[in-house]
Design a protein that fits this description.
The protein is of the alpha/beta class. It has 19 helices and nine strands. Helix 17 crosses helix 18. The structure holds ligand FSX, iron/sulfur cluster and FE3-S4 cluster.
Length: 393
């Protein structure tokens, strides 16, 4: 019991200190830690470890480079409310070089970068925002007389971790789209080694914060997939967690912007939504702390697949998405398995008509019924993922 009291006393004391340091009520601080722990997919109770790591205030030095981009990634971070970037700068990380936010300019700024790199050799985190132009020896982006290629190589050499933030740095993004006149490339391509990527245009600030806090809490970066994306944020298709998914399954689609279906919040698949082939947690965590449904589809716009190489900025908005992962709801009749043959368009249409579904439902239902054999489904999903991966390499 004595031991428990001691623990409570210590944590009360540190929380009080944090309250003063962050100028943030402790309830809000603990909520922030819990939100980050949930974003990282950590088990219940992990918020205590997160809080402890932040309380300890071992601020890692962060060098943040900007190349070919719109600065939307930084802008989106500025919109994170818990805590504000200002608090982040002052407390969670030590942002020693950031061209947009630092007061220094010119030689002073470059000196700050070199000093921070020297003082924190092997320990600093390098964050890269924007693609790197590689054509014509990289002359299309120079900072302080150095090309982006040289800068990223120089800064990565002694970094403890490299994080590519945004689609531009992760896979080339918007600047790399055809005809890619500057040879815009990703950080991993230029460094010739994998890095952690947080794609999205812009990416969700919580995914960045959670990645940094994971580094603080566990001393290592989170587990990633083969594209370098933290699994906690990019292991699910948007389509799997979309609040409009029930409409997709029932065949209720918006056919035009502003039509009755659109106004009633129907699925945006036929307006070109790329949620079925885009991996990201946008529907689960939303953007900008502005309340429920604050993400593209939630606001009535189809997902353009901004985080997914080969989809975002490549596929026309009017083109319907490949449905990578078909998971029909429980209540779907397993007609194919029971009858041993594929359902006809007429029978599917009849089911749709009986259910009183909209015209589009018949087509979707036929597609789904035609795929409802589990083995077929699995095979198609595997093939689709394989070709998607090929397209991404
Ligand atoms: Fe790219 Fe970030 Fe898109 Fe913009 O800078 S990911 S263009 S949001 O800002 O790099
Ligand atoms: Fe949501 Fe788009 Fe999937 Fe429809 S197609 S359920 S809008 S992610
Ligand atoms: Fe981008 Fe689609 Fe999310 S457009 S922000 S990946 S919903």
């Amino acid at each position: 019991m004595g031991n428990m009291n001691e623990i409570f006393e210590t944590s009360r004391k540190t929380l009080l200190e944090v309250e003063q340091r962050l100028d943030m009520p402790r309830r809000e601080f603990l909520q922030f830690c819990a939100t980050l722990a949930v974003t990282m997919g950590l088990p219940a109770g992990a918020e205590a470890a997160v809080a402890k790591a932040i309380e300890a205030a071992k601020r890692p030095s962060v060098i943040w480079l900007h190349f070919q981009e719109c600065t939307g990634c930084t802008e989106s971070l500025l919109r994170a409310e818990h805590p504000t970037l200002e608090k982040l700068i002052l407390d969670v990380i030590s942002l020693d070089y950031h061209e947009t936010l630092m007061a220094a300019a010119g030689h002073q700024a470059e000196a700050a970068r070199k000093d921070a790199m020297k003082a924190n050799k092997g320990k600093y985190v390098l964050v890269v925002e924007g693609a790197i132009p590689t054509k014509d020896n990289g002359i299309y982006c120079k900072i302080g007389g150095q090309t982006a290629i040289d800068l990223v190589k120089e800064c990565a050499a002694d970094a403890a971790a490299v994080i590519a933030i945004g689609s531009c740095a992760s896979w080339g993004g918007m600047p790399s789209t055809t005809p890619n006149p500057t040879g815009a490339s990703s950080v991993a391509e230029v460094l010739g080694k994998p890095v952690v990527t947080i794609p999205g245009c812009p990416p969700n600030p919580y995914n960045f914060l959670a990645t940094v806090v994971h580094f603080l809490t566990f001393g290592k970066l989170p587990e990633v997939d083969k594209l370098g994306r933290p699994k906690f944020a990019y292991s699910r298709l948007i389509h799997e967690n979309c609040e409009r998914r029930a409409h997709f399954d029932a065949g209720r689609f918006a056919m035009e912007f502003g039509d009755a279906g659109h106004r009633q919040g129907y699925c945006l698949y036929k307006l070109g939504c790329k949620g079925p082939e885009t991996y990201a947690n946008c529907p689960s965590i939303g953007f900008g702390d502005a309340g429920e449904n604050n993400w593209p589809v939630g606001c009535g716009h189809p997902c353009i697949g901004c985080s997914e190489k080969g989809v975002g900025f490549e596929k026309p908005i009017h083109q319907v998405a490949r449905v990578l992962n078909i998971t029909p709801p429980q209540q779907y009749p397993r007609i194919v398995e029971e009858q041993g043959k594929a359902a006809s368009f007429a029978s599917a249409a009849a089911v749709a008509a009986v259910a009183g579904a909209a015209a589009g439902a018949a087509i979707m239902l036929t597609r789904n019924l035609g795929l409802s054999h589990a083995a077929d489904e699995a095979e198609r999903a595997r093939d689709a993922t394989k070709s998607a991966d090929k397209a991404q390499v």
